[in-house]
From TrEMBL:
UniProt-listed InterPro entries: CD70 (IPR042374), TNF_dom (IPR006052), Tumour_necrosis_fac-like_dom (IPR008983)
Organism expressing this protein natively: Hipposideros armiger (Great Himalayan leaf-nosed bat)
Highest taxon of the lineage: Eukaryota
GO cellular component: extracellular exosome; plasma membrane
Protein name: CD70 antigen
Topology term for the membrane: Single-pass type II membrane protein
Function, as annotated: Expressed at the plasma membrane of B cells, it is the ligand of the CD27 receptor which is specifically expressed at the surface of T cells. The CD70-CD27 signaling pathway mediates antigen-specific T cell activation and expansion which in turn provides immune surveillance of B cells.
Localization in the cell: Cell membrane
Transmembrane region(s): 28-49
Subunit architecture: Homotrimer.
Gene that produces this protein: CD70
Stretches assigned to the THD domain: 65-201
Length: 203
C-alpha cells in the first residue's frame, strides 16, 4: 500500500513537473514581442534616414499635383494676361499643389507637367473675324522667374473663334505660368469654353 502511494505521488510529481516545463510564461512572450517591435522601428528609421535626396524629394512631391482653372475677368482688358481663379466653390474648378499668384498659376514642385488650355472669344462675329482674328494669338509661357522666361505654347486663331491645345513640359518649383491673349479681344467666361490647367505626370 505504501509502495503504491509512493508510485502515485511520484507520478503526480512527474506530471506536474512536465506541465510546468511546457508552459511559457507571459512575461517572456511580451518581452519577445516588444523586442521585435523595437527592432522593426529601428530598421524603418534607418531606411528613412539614409534615403537618397531624390527619393526624399519624390516623397515630398506626390504625383497628384493638379489644377483646373476658370477665367476671372471683369471690365475692359488693360493687360494682355488672362487672370484665372480656382476652387471647389466654383464647381468643376480645383487646385491641389499649384497656387494662384495674382491670377497666374505657380507650381510648387519640380517635374514634368501636362498643361492644357482652351480659349473661346466672346461675341465672335463675322466682322471680328475679318478684322482681327487673322493676327490674334494666345500664348502660354513661364513669366516668372524672369531668368526662366520661356514660351511654351503659341496658338493662332486663324479666323476661328476658339483655340485649344495641350503639351508636356518640364517645370521647376516657383515657375509662374502666364497666358497672354491679343488685346483687346475678350475671352468667353463660360467655363465650358475657356479653361486652363496643369497636371504633374513625372518627377
Amino acid at each position: 500500500m505504501q509502495r503504491w502511494r509512493r508510485t502515485t505521488m511520484e507520478m503526480a510529481e512527474e506530471g506536474s513537473c512536465t506541465y510546468v516545463v511546457r508552459r511559457l510564461p507571459w512575461e517572456f512572450i511580451l518581452r519577445a514581442v516588444f523586442a521585435l517591435l523595437l527592432f522593426g522601428t529601428v530598421v524603418v528609421c534607418f531606411i528613412l534616414c539614409n534615403q537618397h535626396p531624390a527619393q526624399q524629394h519624390r516623397l515630398e512631391s506626390p504625383g497628384w499635383d493638379v489644377a483646373e482653372l476658370q477665367l476671372n475677368h471683369t471690365g475692359p482688358r488693360q493687360d494682355p494676361r488672362l487672370h484665372w481663379q480656382g476652387g471647389p466653390e466654383l464647381g468643376r474648378s480645383f487646385l491641389h499643389g499649384p497656387q494662384l499668384d495674382k491670377g497666374q498659376l505657380r507650381v510648387q514642385h519640380d517635374g514634368i507637367y501636362r498643361l492644357h488650355i482652351q480659349v473661346t472669344l466672346a461675341n465672335c462675329s463675322s466682322s471680328l473675324k475679318n478684322t482681327m482674328l487673322h493676327r490674334a494669338t494666345l500664348a502660354v509661357g513661364i513669366c516668372s522667374p524672369t531668368t526662366r522666361s520661356i514660351s511654351l505654347l503659341r496658338l493662332n486663331f486663324y479666323f476661328s473663334c476658339a483655340v485649344a491645345s495641350q503639351r508636356l513640359t518640364p517645370l521647376a518649383r516657383g515657375d509662374t505660368l502666364c497666358t497672354n491673349l491679343t488685346l483687346p479681344l475678350l475671352p468667353s467666361q463660360n467655363a465650358d469654353e475657356t479653361f486652363f490647367g496643369v497636371q504633374w505626370v513625372h518627377p
